Amino acid sequence: MMQWETVIGLEVHVQLATQSKIFSGASTAFGADPNTQACAVDLGMPGVLPVLNENAVAMAVKFGLAIDAEIPETSLFERKNYFYPDLPKGYQTSQMAQPIVGTGNVEITLDDGTTRTIRVHHAHLEEDAGKSLHEDYHGMTGIDLNRAGTPLLEIVSEPDMRSAKEAVAYIKALHAIVTYLGISDGNMAEGSMRCDVNVSVRPKGQAAFGTRAEIKNVNSFRFVEKAIAFEVERQIELIEDGGEVIQETRLFDPERDETRGMRTKEEANDYRYFPCPDLLPVTLDSAYVDHQRALMPELPSEKRQRFENQLGLSAYDAGVLASSRAMAEYFEAVKEACGNAKQAANWVQGELSANLNRENLEIGDSPVTAEQLGGLIQRVMDDTISGKAAKQVFQALWDGEADSADAIIDARGLKQVTDTGAIEGMIDQVIADSPVQVAQYREADEAKRGKMIGYFVGQVMKASRGTANPQQVNSLLKQKLDQA
Amino acid sequence: MHDKTLTELAAGLQAGEFSSRELCQAALDRIEHLDGELNSFITVTAEQALANADAADRAREAGDAGPLAGLPLALKDIFCTQGVRTSCGSKMLDDFVSPYDASVVEKLRQAGAVNLGKTNMDEFAMGSSNESSFYGPVKNPWDLSAVPGGSSGGSAAAVAAGLVPAALGTDTGGSIRQPAAFCGITGLKPTYGRVSRYGMVAFASSLDQGGPLARSAADCALLLEAIAGHDVRDSTSVARVVPDYTAELDTPLTGLKIGLPKEYFGDGLDPEVETAVREAIKVYESLGAKVCEVSLPHTHLAIPAYYVIAPAEASSNLSRFDGVRFGHRCDDPTNLEDLYKRTRAEGFGEEVKRRILIGTHTLSEGFFDAYYLKAQQVRRLIRQDFLDAFDEVDVLMGPTAPTPAFDLGAQKDPVSMYLQDIYTIAVNLAGIPGISVPAGFAGNRPVGLQVLAPHFAEAQLLGVAHQFQQATDWHLKRPAFGKETA
User: Fold this and answer.
1) What are phi and psi of B21, to 5 degrees?
2) How many CB atoms lie within 10 A of CB A256?
3) Which residues of B are catalytic?
4) Quick one: how far is CA B75 from the chain centroid?
5) Structural domain boundaries in chain A
């Protein structure tokens, strides 16, 4: 049986979070009524001219610096010519021969903790096209040009990935970088990150690449994994059946989890790239690049190291908490509020993440704020409530019962009883009510006693309605039972 | 009144000799009487013009008159004008009403000028005779059997016939200077980047430049002052102070060094044109200028390079005319490809299609290096030729066109039409400014003297042209056409 190796390269289009479009002053906000955010420039009216949005340049440069890439002094916009109804000018203004970001590296971490470096061939700026709407137009096609001219950074990797998992890890790493930098909202559902996936297979050990298929517009981490899985299987089957993979563009159908042929290389457009005469070459001197570098926030890898080295978190915890800017910011806010990094890490990765996952929410949508969670952790740390009660309080905060842990603790009377006299009273009562169990306990050896004491702790906790401090209950019980 | 220059009319308005309404009404009447024969206008905006003339008169009364307040002008129909059809001489845009004003249109309005309408032109500015217009050819007022030149033929003919004192045109390869020469008026192509291209329907973006056509260099100076300057909406416009061109007109010519490119006096130059141009140069010598011969060794490559670069850019610029959002759309398209094919087949004329095909070919895979890249290399050599020449001399002079205006329908072969621009095209490739001034006649048809100067030396260029017009009266000659009409 032949062993196959998968080779994957990705082109990831990241929508940059500029206020206005890359070549016009129109807004880039998502979700407006069709064609209300398209000005004369976006519509490709006769006589209009593009003016480059300097913010888009700054964002691209920051990305380049984040992946340790070369930032060429001169980059150039070119026109990519083809006809399509949602491409108003009949060309897309893009970069080809001289992109704004040169070769760089992205480090990825797989689920098993291993890391790999994926090389980035280059990243270039371009404008997005509009959208064709095929429904509800009585057999005609509607065109919405709101998206036309939205700035995109296209990040082109080398064919360095060898599995769908690596591809997903790479996209997640890019997602973390662009959201950390604040250059994209990274919202995949709204199309802020879209991928074209190049997939080929080759017999293990063979140096030459197989013929690749390009799968267009795969718009979620999950779809990337599924599209690659399907495509790899399709290509292997094809070859093993004596067929040949043809170089073509394919489309992923998320309804059926399959890819379908769109056009072959022979049908491909000749885009007739040439330098756009309406735009000057972009020249960036080292002072500009240094300035952008100074404006950059802490990046995921730097944050991970700080969490590990300064906060004393485990490598795993540091990795998870630094994986997204939102997660890291939340964690750091909890840590600020409660003053204990380990506790904050445990709660964010434990109770909070479990709840978020269950309800399929992003951390930004958490009903429990970082300040609320920090307040709760403080009450656990100062022994005001037990760990068990804390879970109750968390759920109440999640459900929006009150706006602070303290308010819920008061309302529910969860304040832990640490008064030794009160606990002793309850213990005496339990011992008096359980003569059989007491006798059995006292007859048992030390090893058995350890297990049997749980019964008494449970009874005392029940009597205190959970408010007694369990450690205190435990030690007082031991004293009293062992006395006789 | 129709014989007067812009400068004289401005003085008349200022002195209260007549109102802007009277002036504009007179021009509109002349257009109505004469333009049926001339065909220099595509659209006349009489009502709007008179309202603006009244507004200019009121502004003057209120002491708030701009530098061009109340002066009638016409715009080549390539400049977008809000609410007014902007056809670019094409069936493709026959029903296109621009939703915005070009930058120069805004500037002219702010200066108080009154636009009377949109002038005829070669379709998408592609032509040297104005015969490729969807709206029919324009006639030369000096001889109705001759072409007015192109592509700004309507603007040139309207000024020459006294329908308007001045007009704006655009020049991609000679389209202001050559029609100015053919029609016996003064036409200036400014330095690339001096005048905003925002709102000028693009033909070849790296070559296009708007500029004035008028009855004198002084009038051109007045207009250039109004339209020049940096525009944030045009990245290729240059942030450089706009000089007071009018104030510098009278700088004496003593010591001026004039270079005569020997390549501009070679084969193909009409002897009568050459005689007129050499006479004009003698006038300069008499004014104290020194004349010497210079060489622009890559001149013979200008037309081939231009006919690669300009069509390449045009093929891309004209892709937006696809029948989807504006302009002509074919009836009942059966599918997308049918929509594109028939819309563009019906909407564009022959010359435009020819250039789209040439440009598409030169940009295509396998031909790009041999054509487009090579042409860009040649372009740099041509530019260097001029820079080298300007190390030796202050200005260059020669004929604007190799012949006087030719007969309507005479140039049947596209290549012989392209050769019309032999002396003008290199100037666009180099990006330098050039002006054509009336310098005599070949038979009954005017001859233009072309003067070229270094980048952004418009002040000097206009001064050199103005001094010639102080010493000669060629620019004051008027055609017989329309002479009897008030």
Assistant:
1) -60, -45
2) 9
3) 76, 151, 175
4) 10
5) 4-288, 298-412, 420-483
**Contact check, Cβ <8 Å, A272/B100:** no
Q: In total, how many domains does chain B have?
A: 1
- CA dist B29 and B176 (Å) reads 26
DSSP B142-155: TBTTB---SSSHHH
* Spatial contact of B228 and B209, defined as CB atoms under 8 Å apart: no
CATH number of A420-483: 1.10.10.410
Question: How many C-beta neighbours within 10 Å does residue A19 have?
Answer: 10
| B360:A272 CB<8 A | yes
Over the stretch B294-338, which tens digit does the pLDDT of each residue have? 999 999 999 999 999 999 999 999 999 999 999 999 999 999 999
Chain A nearest-CA residue for B88: A46
Asked if A81's CB is within 8 angstroms of B319's CB, the reply is yes
Provide the number of CB pairs (under 8 Å) joining chain A to chain B.
99
What residue spans of A277-417 are helical by DSSP H? 286-294, 300-309, 315-321, 325-338, 341-347, 353-358, 370-381, 387-398, 405-412
Q: How far is CA A365 from CA A113, A184, A357, A359, A360, in A?
A: 28, 18, 12, 10, 10
Q: Which member of B79, B234, B326 has the closest CB to residue A49?
A: B234
**Calpha distance B289→B302 (Å, rounded):** 28
ipTM confidence: 0.96
Question: Cα(first)–Cα(last) distance of chain B, in Å?
Answer: 8
- Domain with B118 in it: 6-250+458-476
Tokens of B26: 């007179």
For the record, the structure tokens of B407 come out as 């007969």
Adjacent-strand bridge partners of B170: B210
Q: Do B28 and B49 meet the contact criterion of CB atoms below 8 Å apart? A: yes
- The minimum CA-CA distance between A97 and chain B, rounded to whole Å, is 13
Condensed to tens digits (0 to 9), the pLDDT of residues B39-76 reads 999 999 999 999 999 999 999 999 999 999 999 999 99
